[in-house]
Amino acid sequence: xxxxxxxxFYLARDTVYRWFTRLSSPLARLSVxxxxxxxxxxxxxxxxxxxxxxxxxxxxxxxxLVVATEYMDRESVHRSGHETVQACPELYDLYLFHxxxxxxxLGEQRYSLVEYMPMCTGLFxxxxxxxxxxxxxxxxxxxxxxxxxxxxxxLRAVTIPEKQAGILRRLYREGAVFIPYGSLNNIxxxxxxxxxxxxxxxxxxxxxxxxxxxLSLLGKLxxxxxxxxxxxxxxxxxxELESTQYSFRxxxxxxxxxxxxxxxxxxxxxEFQQNRYIYALIGSFGINRFLLFVSFIIENAVLVALGxxxxxxxxxxxxxxxxxxxxxxxxxxxxxxxLENDIRTFLLAFGICVLISSIPIGIAACRxxxxxxx
Length: 374
Fold this sequence. Notes:
By secondary structure, this protein is an alpha+beta fold. Helix content is 53%, strand content 18%. It contains eleven helices and nine strands. Strand 2 and strand 3 form a beta hairpin. Helix 4 (205-221) runs antiparallel to helix 5 (232-274) and helix 5 packs parallel to helix 10 (359-365). The two termini are 32 Å apart. The model has no long low-confidence stretch (mean pLDDT 78).
């Protein structure tokens, strides 16, 4: 046991001595792993950023919303019932709005007048008002009363803070005035627009497109002209982009790892050739050659680990530069957790690289001592 510890100590001291006497060897391995990994991670981060940009775009357009709009003429009954779309709480939350063909003025600004049904009250802030709300064109931060004008009549509405606007801002980007159902009965004689809003509980491309198809079919069966707006296509594009990126990113990682594997194999083989007589003499004293083989594996593993850790630290240090300057996405943040799959692939590939690069060492270590020394 003591003899084995002494051999391990000698091999460790020999490795450190070789590093200091031939500094280019460990530096070459460190720099190769560092720079190739750094370039690979920065390149792969572009795919993470592109997915986040598309996901942000979908979110802003209402990724979880399916909106169906139909025109109701003057002969249509003005009521709050669900004529075309039925509630389905396990799949979506249903909201219903009626948009009148009249406008409300606030100073020189004109707003659409929208009637909301009882199931929509949760979308509005709780106040002691008459239930009339104003979503202003320019976002505001606090509740506040505003006097709006409708056909010469002055009405008081409460402004909706932007942080509480939620899906209302997605539906009415230019703002609107909302009134509770049944509060104004004399404005519907010229017809109105009925808007069904489905907020999906599981907004995948399949779920959104299924509801879109169902609404389109219902409109055809009932002979209604229904316009449907959703992010189904964008969600489908997002899924395709992530699927395509995954395989491409894996191949990039494997390609970089293959280059590192070749370089590690070449450098390790050269180092073993330079020290083969010393190792042969050590073997002639009865020292287990397996320890020589393991020492080279540990040496390469330590150098690869240090180089890759340095590349991760560098990516973390320049993450703001990558998003703001390199890829022109200042509103996007980048974290190492978002590169988790790539990092895991790198670690797995590097582990295989270290083992493969040690194969020539193992073959050379198994050569008969006499052939080496003669």
